[in-house]
Amino acid sequence: MFKKIKDKVMSIKAKAVEVIETKTAETYVDTGVKVLIAVVIGALLLALLYALFEDTIMPSVVTKVQELFNYAG
């Protein structure tokens, strides 16, 4: 029974060592590219939201607020 457990632990250890030793720079480059893509997409979304708020939403909000405070009573 202990031999089976020992073999299983050694097998897991061998797999872990293999994964660590075969780590190449390619994975770091891939991660960097993913981060760069995420930053660019985030910047585009922020620019889109800013343009939407500036041109579409804010003028109507400003008009409604001015109408609220322009009460002649």
C-alpha termini separation: 91 Å
Number of strands: 0
Binned strand content: under 5%
Mean pLDDT: 84
Principal-axes shape call: elongated
**Low-pLDDT regions:** none
Most strands sheet:
none
**Sheet/helix structural class:** mainly alpha
Helix-strand pattern: HH
Helix coverage percent: over 70%
Rg result:
29 Å
Number of helices: 2
Can you lay out the helices and strands and say which pair or pack?
Elements: H1 2-21, H2 25-69
Structural account:
By secondary structure, the protein is mainly α. The protein has a domain at 24-73. 89% of the residues lie in helices and 0% in strands. The chain is built from two helices and no strands. The protein has helices at 2-21, 25-69. The radius of gyration is 29 Å and the shape is elongated.
Concise structural overview:
With 73 residues, this protein is mostly helical. The chain is built from 2 helices and no strands.
Question: How would you describe this structure in keywords?
Answer:
mainly alpha, 2 helices, 73 residues, 0% strand, 89% helix
